Structure formats: C-alpha cells, structure tokens
Amino acid sequence: MSTLDVRTDLWDAPAPPRPTATAFDYDVAIVGLGYVGLPTALAYHAGGSRVIALDASSRRLRTIAARGADLIDSDRERLDTALRSPAAFRLTSDVTELSRAAAVVVCVPTPVDARQVPDLTALRAACATVVAAARPGQLVMLTSTTYVGCTRDLVERPLRERGMEVGVDVFVAFSAERIDPGNVGFAQEVVPRVVGGATAECEERGARLLARYADRVHRVSSLATAEMTKLLENTFRAVNIALANEFADICGALDVPVTEVIEAASTKPYGFMAFYPGPGVGGHCIPCDPHYLLWQLKALHVDAGVITEAMTRIAARPRRVVERIRDVLGRAGKGTLGARVLVVGVTYKPDVADLRESPALEIIDLLADLGAEVQYVDTHAPHIHLVSGRERDSLADPGAFHPDVVLVHTRHHDSDLGWLDADTVVVDGTYRSADIAGRVLL
Fold this sequence. Notes:
With 442 residues, the chain is α/β, with parallel strands linked by helices. Helices cover 36% and strands 14% of the residues. It has helices at residues 3-6, 37-46, 58-65, 73-83, 121-133, 150-161, 200-210, 223-254, 258-265, 289-299, 305-331, 359-369; strands spanning 26-31, 51-54, 89-92, 101-106, 139-142, 171-174, 193-197, 217-219, 340-344, 373-377, 383-385, 391-393, 405-408, 425-428, 440-441. β9, α12 and β10 (373-377) form a beta-alpha-beta unit. Residues 1-10 and 18-22 have low confidence and may be disordered.
C-alpha cells in the first residue's frame, strides 16, 4: 500500500526537492478541484504533465485522497494512477506552491445568487491569489465561465499593476471548460478547446498548454472572443431548452406526444438540433452562464429580449411542475395540504451526484410550503439541505411511504422503480419514462 493510501494529510507533506535543471518544477497548477478542476488536473496528468492540484478545502482534498470524488469510471482510474505518483501529481492547499508551476489554471465556480446576479466571490479570491503568486515566465489561464472582460479585469490588469508586462514577463489566456459531468461519451481530450490570449504570444502559450491533452485547439483573436464563445454556447442551450419546454406545454394542450414530435423533427439532417423538455434546468452552466451576459448588457443598456424571456421561463419551470402536481392531485380528488409526494431523483442530471441548481430542490420546498409531505429517493444523493433550511434523507424503502403522487425528476441508470404501485399516479418530468404504466406528463 502506498503512502497516499493511508495518509489524510498528504497535502501537507513536505514538497519534493526542487530540481535545478528546469525553471519550474511542475508543468501546470490547477486551482479548484471541483467538477471541472479535478477532471482537468487528471487529464493533464494522463497527458504526461506534472501537476499541482490545489484546493482551499481540506475536506475536498481528503475526499479526493480517499478516492471518494464523484467521477466517471475513466477518471476514477486516472485518479488512482495519479495518487500513486505523488512526484507528478501533488495535492495541496498551500498557495505558495503555485510559483512552482509553469502554468496556473483557474477552475473555480461562478454561480449566481438568489436574484440571478453573478457571484464572483470565489473567482475574485482565486485570481487575486494567483496574481499575487505569479512569477516571470508563467502562464495564467482562466477557465471559469464569466462576463466578457473578466480575464482582463481580474488577471491582466492586476498583473500589470504589479509591474509585469503581459506578453513578455507573464502570459494571460482564457479557455472556458467544456466538461459535461457524467457524460462518458465525450472524453476531455476529444472535445476541442477554444483559447484566446491577451497578446499573440499569450495565445500561443495557451494553445500549447491545452495541446498537452486536447486533440484539437481552436484559437480566437482575443480574450473577449473566447469569453463570449462560452456564453453563446450555453445561452444557445438555455434558449432551446426553454423552447422545448414551451412545445411540451403546447403539445400537451393539443394532445400530441411531444417526444415523438422531437424525434420526428430530428430526422432532418440539417437545420435542426433536438432539445428535450424536462422539470427544469440545473447544473453549473445553463441556469447561470446567460445571467453573466444579461448582467453585463443591463449596465450597457443593451436589450436582449429573447435571452431574458428564455431565462425567465427557465426560472419559472419548477413552479410549473408544482402546478401540474396540484392539478393531478385535484383530479384525484385530493388537495396539496397533507398530500404525500415522492420525488424520484434530485440531482440535476442522471448518474451524477451534483445538486447544484437542481430544480428538484426548489420543487420540494415549494410543495412543502403548500403543506404537502414531501420525500425523495436518490442513490446518488443520500442527504439534501434545502434553501428553506429543511433537510431530507433519501428513503430506504420508498414503497412504504405510500405516496399519493410520484414525480419522476431524474432517472439514474441504477434507479429501481419496482416498488411503484400500479395505482400510484406518476408525473413524468423526464417525458421519456414510457415504461411506467399510467404515467402523466408535465
């Protein structure tokens, strides 16, 4: 058994001796080891880079060291390999270690607050730390999705204020992450990366860094272009999901099967891309990223009516789900007060343990506010803490709850619905659970 298998304070271990033959001891440092940062660190290590993997949370570091992080199988294998080579993959919380890496990549969350205003707290802190630790010759790259001009404001300008000439002394680039948690169909190395730099030399160095693991790197002319590219990607998805949800409501009113319509439209080999309706949108991208653009445009008095309406509709979707559940209960002669509602799956997408922005959390709170007794079952989320302060544990025996109505919110591949009673009313929030007899759609 290696030392890494038994130590819980491995990130406080003495650093390996500094080699004298090279200017930097490590090729890249990853700041932030969440759903993006950890897979990114592992991809670089698998590509042959020497990696510093840094996170401020000792709990997160212990989870990673114990091999308990939520990862797809291929990344679990990469983590096991990385932890067995501490000289080339160093877990740490020591920010002074950043000066030992030729490149520093910032991968921290950029959420929005309850008013849909960008929360830059983590990003500002991370960038300030990286700028303070920067040394000549380093490349600093942001991957966190944010507003256009953020890399200039939080990295390039502060470095210049330190007296460093960007493009000569230090180098600055932006390349937004393109990780889809839980998606085994697209390995990181096969997804093209877009990069822009503060100068031509910054762009060149950023492209070379990404090429350490990515098969294809697409260069753009500026930091701002790279930042806007990511905003377009996720705003495009948000608008089309809002449209798919609207079509689901329209098809419901006209008694037309929406999924059959989408599948039929998908046979067209050009000009159409399938998006499916659901109970809402969660995760770290779609519910958040377009708000960074809208926030910036508001200050510039630029109208973005289509995007604004789409995000308004997305935000309202959980309430639409609750209204549908109330309608279903009413048709069964029951009110919401005292009704027993069971939610199947509370993570934001199948086969991940990620609860960020999950519509299920808001749906549970809204139903509880109306007096319903709400429980859930989810093998990937044994415990949840809601915005209201309520807490719930996943039911060990959901059948024993005897729900009046079941909402299928997220179906993991290991979801067992054998406990469903044939007489139980099931609201299918996925629109794709045709195997459940007697289901009704949102």
